[in-house]
Amino acid sequence: MMKNLPLVLFLSGMIVPASAEAVKTTPQGKVMQTANTADTSYTEEEDQDFDEETNDPLEPLNRTVYFVNSVLDAFILKPAAIAYRLILPEEIRNGVGNALRNLAAPITTLNHLLQGQGSRAGVTLVRFGLNSTVGVLGLVDVAKEMGFHTLETNFNETMAVWGVNTGPYLVLPIIGPSTFRGTLGLGVDYFTQPLNYFVNKDHHNQGIGYAILGTEVVHQRNLVLEAIDDLEATSLDMYASLRSVHFQKQTYQLTKLQEADESKSDNELLDAPKELEIFG
Predict the structure, then answer these.
(1) How buried is 86 (Cβ within 10 angstroms: 0-12 exposed, 13-18 middle, 19+ buried)?
(2) C-alpha span between 253 and 202 (Å, rounded)
(3) Which of 9, 13, 206, 229 could pair with 154 in a Cys bridge, judged by C-beta atoms 3.0 to 4.6 Å apart?
(4) pLDDT band at 261 (very low <50, low <70, confident <90, very high)
(5) Where are the strands (E) in the chain, listed by range?
């Protein structure tokens, strides 16, 4: 059995933010994409085809898991996220987010290589080295201030670049929205996360892993407090809305990768004004 698998589910970049400003809902509860999502050739259009948003043959099972997740969120996760925001000032929360993203740098580096982006992988390694040392274990993103920018990515997106179809929609316990491809990506990201080979039961330090996991979960939930509340207020079917948002998120992330590929430099893309990316 894989140890500390929950840790990688979050460190792997599964909770990769999309744009809250890019999501709106109709009175019928259907989510609409309003951000600029340029056409992408990565997956032969399956990631931008609306029919894929309804590729949910396991819907009865998925709705059951969604209901359980919703109960856990209402009574545990959301209150914890609210307390986290009330207790810690924004500067500290931003530092926590920086550190968590820094931990995912090895996964990002490998997947940039698998996507044929060697230079971007190199920049990610430089960022990891600078932020882990000068940036005090990643709490301060000094690499960004020095002009080193990168895009977070994972094996799910790598498979999309390779042309692998997302497969049916799948709601995972606690984790939430995913797909068959996304779930496979989580497993691969687990084995490519070096931290998992040092923080586990065999080394008698699994408590560190649980602490990182708990921090990541609460931090990410804190980022989407308003976005989820707004979606619930305007949606007649929250399950269907979250499913739609999930597929829009995939399209958004792949579009960002393509735009970076087509731009003269990653910095030109990443320094440009864009929506607040908080909806995961």
Answers:
(1) exposed
(2) 36
(3) 13
(4) confident
(5) 23-25, 31-33, 169-172, 176-179
